[in-house]
Structures are given as C-alpha cells and as structure tokens.
Amino acid sequence: MRNFIFKVKKIVLTVLGLSCLLLVSCKEDSYLNAIPDNVVAIMAVDAEKSGLSISTDDIDTKEKIYFFEMADGTLGMVARYQGHSNGFKTVADKWACGFGDGKMVILGPVLPAQFEEARQRIQRLMEQGEDESIVGKPLLSRVDSLKSPIGLVAQAEAVPEQFAALFTLCAPKNADPSMVYLAAEAELDKGVLRVKGSNFSFNKNLQSAMDESSKVFRPLKGVYKDECEAHLLSVVMNADGSQLLPLMQQNKSLQMLLAGMNAAVDMDNIIRSVDGEMALMLKNGNMDMTMRAQLGKRDFIKDVAYWKSSCPQGSRIIDQGKDKWLYESGDIRFYFEVTPANEFIGRLTHEKGDGEHLVESALEMIRPFTGDLKAVVYQIGTAN
C-alpha cells in the first residue's frame, strides 16, 4: 500500500512539474505578450476561416492574428511569426514591422522621421512579459470569446464620433464612455462584410441597464438586405419606433442630430411611427445618407403642411408629388416620401462631407485584407 501511494505521489509531482514547465514556456514564448495592455480596441482574426487575404509565409495562419488601436491612436498588428530570421523593416512606407522569436509586430502609420522611434517601441513590445501585456486582461478574454472568424471589442471612445452614436445606442445617457464597449462579430462573404454588434460593460449595473435597452431590438428578417449590400456602409435594425426613439434621444450625438432635423421636419414623429426594419445607408464616402423604414402608421403626413409654414428662415419644404417632399436649407437637401406600402424613404445630401476622410481611411486600412470590399453592413440585433 505504501509503495502504491508513493507511486501515485510521484506521478502527480511529475505531472505538476511538466505543467509548470509548459506554463513557463508558454509565458516566455507566447506572441500574445507583444500586445500592449493599453489598447482601446482589439480585433481577433481567424485567418483560415475569415476570408481575409493574409498572404505571407512568415505568419502562422493557424493562430489568431490581432489588430489593435492603442490609447494614443497608434494602430498595430501582432501575429505568430514562423520565419527563422530576426529583424526590422518598413511596409508600404508608413508601417514599421519587427519580427523574430515567434512574434511579428507592426505599428503605424508613421512618418519616415519616426521609424527609429517606432522600431524601439516595437522592440520593447517584443521583449515585454505577460504582466506588461494584454494577456489575462478582460478585453482579450472578451474578444477571444466571440465565435465568429472576425471579432472586435472596442471602447466607445475609440469609435469615430461620427459613427459612435449608432454603435452605442444601448448605452444610458450619463454613462461614462470609458466604461461602454462595443462587441462585434463579423463575416466576409463575396465582398460583403456583415457585422453583428452589441454594447456591453464590465460594470454590472451598466451592463444590466444595457441588457434592458437591447430588448428594444428584434430579429432582422432581411427586408433591406439587397439594398444594404448595394451601399458602402449600412446600419440596420428592427424595432418599434416608440421604443427606439427614447434610446436615440438619450444619446447625446443623436440628440443633437435630431434637434437639428426637428427644426423643420419632425423626425421624432417619423421615427416614432416606425414598426419594423430600418436601414441607414451611405452610398460612398461623402456621407450622403439614405434612410428606409417600415412604418406602423403614417399619421405624421397630415403635419407636413405645418412643417412648411414653420420652416426656419433660409429653408423650405417643396412638394414633389403625392406624399413626396424636398427640404432645402443651404447646401443640405433632404428628400422624403411615404409609399403606398407604408414605407418611409429619406435621402440626405449635402455638398461637404466632413466624415469622408474617416470612411476612406478605414477602407484604405482594411482593403489589403478584404480585397474588393463592396459593402459593410452593421446589424443591431440578431438575424433570422
């Protein structure tokens, strides 16, 4: 009996010893240690399943590739390096790349005069240990828990202001932006990047409030699928407008947008009349927008006569046919109509698109991986 106990103890100690060696080895060699701990957004990509074009023999595509944004706005990528050389190089004249010891790190964009500083920064990331990295942090755990080939987790503050309002609809009005996050799962299919997004927080009380808000959104049925895929960027949802409007009104950015529109056209009443799917679509980078929505009622039509008479100075609403109108104010044109099938269609155009550079910069960054990207469709809620 004593010999049996001794053998069992020996086996247990051997297993524990091997486990410790394995853990130490992983800690020293893990390419994840090169991801900084101060990221505000991180994307995990399963290269073999994502459909993205990752065409370098030096990257181990069996392991996830991580793209991230740091607190100072620096963009980066970390991948498992399977080449045999160590070194540093520039990529496309604006990205700094370091590789060796099983890690590849890319940072940028940087100016030529900044490459030496970037090289030193990359060297520090490649040499840092697990305690200095994102390993073991909630952000990495959350992005790795997403089931799609492309997963993204980002602080609300990291999302460009022009788009943050739509991507954080579930956040309470007075929520600290640093505590509100976006989680998104994406799939690339035939040039269309479909993204399913939701809000979350590591704060339990805030998470509870957002869970309650998310109940407003219903499963999508694909009513505007084809039209969304014909536009560069779309946001689509399914909701009862009477429940959706309070969410939009508590969002500071959307509140300002609605207030501006309500000066002439009662957008509150239009949104309140929605009952079904609603899509907001950008055709190109100039930020001109099309809105299509299924209506539960069309009572607001009788108020258009009042809207005409109360337009601010320098603006007007012109009849364009039965249940069709055009609002003009400076360089802004807003065409809107209600169809016999109870659908609202609105098209907003203006000469100057101040968000154009944001769209084009984002496309420039992702197209080397996506190829001919035709459309990005952001879905709030779930699809049937």
What does this structure look like?
By secondary structure, the chain is an alpha+beta fold. The protein has twelve helices and 17 strands. A hairpin with a 3-residue loop joins β4 and β5. The radius of gyration is 25 Å and the shape is elongated. The relative contact order is 0.10.
Structural class determined from secondary elements:
alpha+beta
Task: Name the helicity range.
Answer: 25-40%
Low-confidence stretches: 1-28
Average pLDDT over all residues: 83
Largest sheet: 17 strands, mixed
Shape call: elongated
Q: How widely separated are the two ends?
A: 62 Å
Portion of residues in beta strands equals 25-35%
Q: How many runs of DSSP E, i.e. beta strands?
A: 17
User: What string gives the helices and strands in order?
Assistant: HEHEEEEEHHEHEEHHEHHHEEHEEEEHE
Question: What's the alpha carbon Rg, rounded to whole Å?
Answer: 25 Å
Compute the number of helices.
Answer: 12
